[in-house]
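seq as requested:
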Amino acid sequence: VRTLFGTAPALRRQMKGIVSKEEEKQPVYQTEWVPPTQVVVDLPPAAPMKDKDGLLWTLQVAACFSRYPRITPDKTPEELKWAEFREMIDLRKSCLSMDEIREEQERIRRLKNPDEDFDDEVGEYREDFTPSDRVTDADRNNDRRSLNRHLQHTLMLLVKGKDGWEMPTVSLADSENLRSAVDRCLVRTLGPEVHAHTVANAPSGCFVVPPAGSKPGRKVFFLRAIYIAGKPALHKDYSDFVWVPHFEMKDYLKPEYIQAIKGFAS
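struct tokens:
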């Protein structure tokens, strides 16, 4: 636990200058930000660990890499009815604002002097403004590699490796904590040009694959990270990638995998 998550209480006491003799001998694991170009991506995995029952386990870290929504979600029928009702009430009870008064005065002035040459364009921007389409070309073409789709939903990155579809995953190296491992995972999978923000030092979930015969089991810890910017350059170990919302994950992931991530990947 000390290696994976660090020791927050000991770290706080160390910052205050209150450190016991036992804590002086024990390392305090603190993650420092490292530029993506300086991250060592190919570290040898740690040897499988044996539990109290004698079973071998391989520890891995997976990045729940998300692109947050870019627009507000569509209103439900109830919300549309309520918005229409509120607009009606506000219209009945409100007075004209200064902009509306000036616009009305300008309209009357133009009607009274139709031959006059007006240089100003008060109110014209409202007539010419056209909002952007909420449905993009990537939505129409079902381009699941594009980030410019499902703008009102959170998209998550899935990659296809030799074992099928999964979130970007790496094996934990010796003396490496989860935060450092997930940063290394993102740089290894997508290249140093992709800017990401890891949300926390502790995992949001865990996926367990029991041991099968002499093959060690797997414990995959999921840490959340947010896409900021950059174009991904997929690692050679992966053959494909997609950006999908939670309701499209069933097309790629196994039911037990979805069950492990449904609490935070939505």
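The radius of gyration is 27 Å.
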